[in-house]
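Honest question from a wet-lab person: if I give you the sequences of every part of a complex, can you actually get the arrangement of the whole thing, not just the pieces? Trying it with mine:
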Amino acid sequence: MNGAGASEYISRRGIPFYKRGNGEEREVSVLDEVLKVANSMGAWLTAAPIVIIALVQVLLYYRQIYHAADAVNLKPEQLRKAFHTGMVTSIGPVVAIFIIMVGLMSVIGAPMAWMRLAVIGAAPTELTAATLGADAMGVKFGGEGYNLQVMAVSWWTMAINGVGWLLLVGLFAHKLEDVREKVGGGDTKWLGILSVAAMIGVFGYLNSRNLTKINGPFVAAVVGAVSMIVLLQVAKKMPKIKEYTLGIAMLVGMFAAMLY
Amino acid sequence: MAAEQINEQKYHEVWTKPVIRMGMITMLLASALSFLPLIYLYMVHGVLPPFAQAMTAWVLVASVFGAFYVVEPISYYPILGLAGTYISFLSGNISNLRLPCSAMAQEVVGVEEGTKQAEIIGTMGIIGSVVINLVGVTLAALVGTWLIGIFPQFVADAFRQYTAPAIFGAVFGQFAMRQPKLAPFALAIPMTLLYFKMPIWLVILAAVFGTIAISRVFYKMKIIH
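Yes, you can. This is the full assembly:
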């Protein structure tokens, strides 16, 4: 199959770029015919159900939270505040996802990009999976010989990769609750420290990759951290700004990195 | 004490049990629906991934990401809680979106970490982020190519490159304030392992559980409380 069908597709379209987080640019071009199928109505219709499941899941949990709030003495206004904070805080990162997704759409088609970025995985993960799928067929991703069948392997690889997380969490997440209860041992104070320690640990790791050399991401991280600390101090006197602190700190960090 | 116990039981009935049921069903359903576009390719275009190459691709992708299927849910669980874990691993974008939004919701409402209240408030923050996320990706899919023109190139570049580092830094700052004595360890452990080119999944595990272990020691020694 490798490359054999390529001669049928003479017209090729140069796809501008997909820029990775580290600024590295890669040239990707996809055959017209293949992209036409990738953007067809059928692709839209079959990508939609999983996106709808993601929406249905949060609606179910949203409703359940209102049922459960009484048991833990939470008032509806606190729930509303939490929901609102989640929405406000997510605006900045979602703009970033939006911009990255438009790049991804040009290489895997809009329906697939929509489906893959609405569920587990992120642009670099999906691009890696799609590329590995083409590799398995002995074809360059989006290059010569990238025909429908190779695209099918790309789609398969993205799907089977996402399913790794979905299945393991679906089948075993509730076991983790038992582990937490055991580790916590009913000591609520220790459980609180454990949660904070886990958070510091995760974000220590996430930052560590940006702190190895002084460059744009380094500046963004350091300035982001300092502005967050300052903003939270300010918020002690002006509680109204508290829910915007993370969004503002992120923008300040980004702005500083741009100036650098 | 008695009131506390009744609450526990009610919590289990109105929260834990339904959360597990909904979580399992939605995750398994999503797993199955992941393959729907492939069925379309087969039914309409008669194209099927060749079996041998599909298996090769599976091995390739699992060798890159397989460890994360296990490591990430375990490492993020103490922060996300049960419902938060189901939602976050269905909707993705965990580090740059779900974790920060869960943390900010808890910060703003002012709940104590690790409590049941914190879990529910954090989940609500995550739900808010999923709604905006879905609006964002749907907009991108429908009008993204057209809308991208309104962003000047340097603004688009800044978002692409610096959003994640800036938000990672900010969240770290937020939590480093809470337990300043843990922060140096949380940075030193992963940076050392990265220096020695250890695999990423091991770096995540060591950063999270190393920091938790140190917090346990400090807690027992009453250095932190």
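Two things worth pointing out. Chain A has a mean pLDDT of 84. Chain A touches chain B through 160 residues (CB under 8 Å).
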